[in-house]
Amino acid sequence: xxxxxxxxxxxxxxxxxxxxxxxxxxxxxxxxxxxxxxxxxxxxxxxxxxxxxxxxxxxxxxxxxxxxxxxxxxxxxxxxxxxxxxxxxxxxxxxxxxxxxxxxxxxxxxxxxxxxxxxxxxxxxxxxxxxxxxxxxxxxxxxxxxxxxxxxxxxxxxxxxxxxxxxxxxxxxxxxxxxxxxxxxxxxxxxxxxxxxxxxxxxxxxxxxxxxxxxxxxxxxxxxxxxxxxxxxxxxxxxxxxxxxxxxxxxxxxxxxxxxxxxxxxxxxxxxxxxxxxxxxxxxxxxxxxxxxxxxxxxxxxxxxxxxxxxxxxxxxxxxxxxxxxxxxxxxxxxxxxxxxxxxxxxxxxxxxxxxxxxxxxxxxxxxxxxxxxxxxxxxxxxxxxxxxxxxxxxxxxxxxxxxxxxxxxxxxxxxxxxxxxxxxxxxxxxxxxxxxxxxxxxxxxxxxxxxxxxxxxxxxxxxxxxxxxxxxxxxxxxxxxxxxxxxxxxxxxxxxxxxxxxxxxxxxxxxxxxxxxxxxxxxxxxxxxxxxxxxxxxxxx
Length: 542
Ligand SMILES: [Zn+2]
Hints:
CATH class of the largest domain: Alpha Beta
Structural class: alpha/beta
Radius of gyration: 23 Å
Bound molecules: zinc ion
Number of helices: 19
Distance between the termini: 19 Å
CATH architecture of the largest domain: Alpha-Beta Barrel
Oligomer: single chain
CATH topology of the largest domain: TIM Barrel
Largest sheet: 9 strands, mixed
Low-confidence stretches: 1-29, 33-37
């Protein structure tokens, strides 16, 4: 009920705005004049972005307008040609949009590292807000994480999620069983604390251990706590391919959790993984459409690449190997009988993901020479079959991989859905460190280049909306995601003809191109290819 009241309250505000808006129109019908008249003309702006094609983020076609910023907020959008301004940026007919919101980011850890706090690879794409702690991961004490971010100061805004897997591990370790009533109440308490610390919702990684050990009912139980705070559930689903439950049933699980708790469910980085699953994107989106038709709030996000990236352990080693503890895992990897049991399963999982040649090592601290090499190459160098090479690699340390496993048809089909947001799923590492997935540097720019400009899969307006107002609406971020007077001044100026991801799988450490300026909370952080030293980012609260 509390949730319903909150929703109707928001609707009331929107209704009032809709009624008051026409009064502003009175004298001049042009959109420029309408917006300008809402502002006292004589007041000076701190910054005016002139001569841009303004995309409001809501999906509307652009209008030619100036954007006036005062302090950390947009003060006016309209014809501000005569308005005094402390400084101006000439957009030169480029597009001016709300700063992009990355709804699934692994940059949380990187942001706390010296030299990475400004998040330059993201600012160079116009990303101004990130959701951290995805896939059930991240710390369980969000106040400490917040304090760490605030002490360091950041270039981007950060919104926190509470990770189900971490909560489960804190209470019951890596136990492969359902929680007892007592354990469940401890998990509920941790989730409640996180929501009170400002989390926007629960992230789960039901594919990964220990999230994979949890029955659906456990997530429903925890989401009933999150529901009281108006938070969302965003999930790396139990199976994106054909490992077990299958991708369609796994999407159904997210729908079921959302339906049972009256909350928003988000299928994170939605995909159909592996050749056996290609084409099932249609079945998945149909399930979501049907759920939405009966009133369930389901959404998805997506990064625009045919390769995913995860740990080699997560990708191909069966979950029973990880049950119990790290010591138990190490013992199993070394035990002949356990190896004999896991190798055929690893072999099948490698095939599922397209074979050993399609798995490329991204970061491997024990042997940097393997970075950028495929599992097939490494296996032949070690003169063992790929499944044995996997055991040998993961026994010596954590291995992150890039895995080519998606079809373009599925990617495009998922992208076209009006409820699909944009994410990167990327992390933040030092320039030159390993061979990470290029999404770290290029996800948002690539969508605008490859899928809007080159292939016309979605319109520019829809793509921008999927990165701005849609995430703000779904996650309930106040006053961001839309370019309008009163909103926070997170703004990107970009050239739709030249914006592009420069990062490739072979050479990933390349900043995106075509973004002329990025502004966070009214402060210019990136302009003309150069970064300022400003760290105006904030840790947001639900
Ligand atoms: Zn994930």
